[in-house]
Design goal:
Layout: H1 2-16, H2 20-29, E1 34-35, H3 36-42, H4 47-59, E2 63-68, E3 71-76, H5 80-109
Antiparallel strand pairs: 1-3, 2-3
Length: 111
């Protein structure tokens, strides 16, 4: 039962990170708390689309939000999320490096 809960949380977090716009939102919020009114102009997406993505990140526990009058402000809840993204980048770099090696072998074989 506990393992299912852990798996569910993993899937929820990883799923929230599986969209390029959401990753861009995290990068944008890396410098600190931002109001939706600041976030919207930085992205060429509709207000409803950005709100949907922010909510997915919030529901996954990646972002925190607070209401200040009529403004909704978002911030990174746990900066460890950037460590996870760096780990994913390292894995991607390994894969790119492997592809480069394979490419050189293929180039040599057609000469």
């Amino acid at each position: 039962m506990a393992q299912k809960s852990v798996s569910y949380l993993r899937v929820k977090i990883l799923s929230a990170l599986s969209d390029p716009v959401r990753l861009e939102l995290l990068e944008y919020l890396a410098d600190g708390e931002r109001c939706v009114c600041q976030i919207l102009p930085a992205f060429e997406r509709s207000q409803s689309t950005i709100s949907k993505h922010l909510n997915i990140l919030y529901e996954a526990g990646i972002l925190d939000r607070r209401i200040d009058g009529k403004r909704t402000l978002y911030c990174i809840k746990n900066p460890k999320i950037f460590d996870l993204i760096k780990d994913v980048d390292a894995i991607a770099l390994d894969q790119i490096s492997e592809l480069a090696i394979v490419g050189k072998i293929l180039e040599a074989s057609v000469k």
